[in-house]
Amino acid sequence: LLTPLVPHIDHRNRGMRTRLGCLSHKSDSYNDFTAILPDKPNRALKRLSTEEATRWADSFDVLLSHKYGLAAFRAFLKTEFSEENLEFWLACEDFKKTRSAAKLASKAQRIFEEFIDVQAPREVNIDFQTRELTRRNMQEPSLTCFDQAQGKVHSLMEKDSYPRFLRSKIYTDLLSQTQRRLS
């Protein structure tokens, strides 16, 4: 009796296969940004003014607070295979809005297992001390249990990814597109 050989694929291998498969499709263009806009791309871009898009360069927090800025930054991070940083930061922002004590522990555990734990499927790059502090915080989860890790990831994105985003083709194409509408 012969059984077909089916390779075992765990989450890490599947993620790696997806990333490797995307290499041939990797792009850093305005079109990649429009594909993930919260609304229909043409309507969204008509709503986005050059002034708004230009303000994203004022500060990282201005970029994060604008829904199209967030979408453009996410598209950029995908080209660098580092969107887990933004996804973790957003998960923490959502977690801080948790009002149900019953949901707090399960949400905290899900965030920890997805982003913080060693070998997590979307592990963020934080130092050992921050990882261990967060692990200890998980013994009694509170709305602030991820604050230090979230701060480190925010700082990493602000100092590292954000300046590259401002020089990226996604951002410069987007600015050009909004300026073209004015002429």
Automatic annotation (TrEMBL):
Report the principal subcellular site.
Answer: membrane
Q: Which InterPro entries match?
A: RGS, RGS_RGS8, RGS_sf, RGS_subdom1/3, RGS_subdomain_2
The record describes its membrane topology as: Peripheral membrane protein
Q: Does the keyword Acetylation apply?
A: no
What Pfam families does this protein map onto?
RGS
User: Where is the RGS domain positioned along the sequence?
Assistant: 59-175
Which key words tag this protein in UniProt? Answer: Cell membrane, Cell projection, Membrane, Nucleus, Signal transduction inhibitor
Q: Which GO terms describe its biological process?
A: negative regulation of signal transduction
Q: Does Nucleus appear among the keywords?
A: yes
Q: Where in the cell is it found?
A: Cell membrane; Cell projection, Dendrite; Nucleus; Perikaryon
- Record's Gene Ontology CC terms? dendrite; nucleus; perikaryon; plasma membrane
PANTHER family per UniProt: REGULATOR OF G PROTEIN SIGNALING (PTHR10845), REGULATOR OF G-PROTEIN SIGNALING 8 (PTHR10845:SF147)
Its name, as the record gives it, is Regulator of G-protein signaling 8
The organism of origin for this protein: Turnix velox
